[in-house]
Each structure stands twice: as C-alpha cells, then as structure tokens.
Amino acid sequence: MNRKRLKQIKDSNAVLKIGFEFITSFYAWFLNYIVAVIPFWCVRKFFYKISGLKLGKDARIGLHTRVIRPARIVIGDRTIINEYCYLDGRGGLQVGDDCSISIYTKIITASHRVNSLEFSYCENSVKINNLVWVGCEAIILDGSLIEKGCIIGAGAVIKGTTEPFGIYIGNPATKIRDRNPNIDYKLDFHPFFR
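and the corresponding structure tokens:
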C-alpha cells in the first residue's frame, strides 16, 4: 500500500473517532440533562435501559441523577436511587437488592493516581451489596466494597471495604457500631412523579 492510501485510511479513522466521540458525548448530555428531568419514571427507565444500564425489578432512579457510562452499571431489585445522585459506571458499579441510596449521594469509580508524574487516570469498580442504606450526601470512592446490611451515614466518605451490617460515619468513614443482622426487608417505593 502506498503512503497516500495509508494517510487516507488514517485520516478516515480520525474522522470516525471524532464522530463517535461527538455522538457519545451528545448522548451523555441528552441522558443527563434531558432524560434525567423527565418526571415520569417509565420514560426515564426506557432511556436508561437502551443505554445498557441493567435495572432490577422495581428498581428506580430519581430525577436529576447523573449517570456516567450506564452500560457498566447494574442495579438490583427494588433498589432506590433518590434524586440528584451521581452514578459513575466508568470502573463498573454494582448495587444489590433492596438498597436505599439517599439524595445527593455520589458513587465514583474513577480517579487519578496520586503519585503519578503524568496524573494518570485509573478505574476501580464499586460494589454495594444487598440491604445497604446510604445517607444523603455520602461519597463512595473507587475500589470500595460495601458489605451486606451496612449503613453509610449522611456526609460520610468511604474508600475501601466495610464489614457486614456495620454503621459508618465521618470523613474518612469509621465504623461506630453494628446494625441488626436479622434485617430482611423488601423496599416498596413507587411515587408517581419522582
């Protein structure tokens, strides 16, 4: 193949890459600034599902929630993500069944390496097991594992692994006591306009 043809192929690949980046950026904007404010859950749910987000039976995502890389997010049965949350699927996000994620919670699965000379980017998954209650404005950072039945207090910042049924508060979050390990509820939350 001659050099001219190789340059044409390279240029066409660059155009395709720019076009793909434009389309994916536009769709992310559409999902987070148009779909996220539609007051009807059935409509938002449709767009989240066609974006690849996996939603369990009776799971719900509240209004104004930002969803990054939805195809890498799995939300379990009857889990409620309340309004104005931030769900980051870049590193992979899995939320179990019957979890309550309170308003303004941020779950972040990507960051930068602290000692990198190039400020290199990294992704680490977050897993939240069943029956977890996350208080408002809590932040769960990349690489965290929230074990079954935990409570993460309002405003807490979690990085790492929790113990099952632990109650965590503060920044950085520390365990203050245990929750009743016999809990076994099923969330039932079906508002019309949230």
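(Above: one complete record from the training split.) Residues 3-33 form the longest helix (31 residues).
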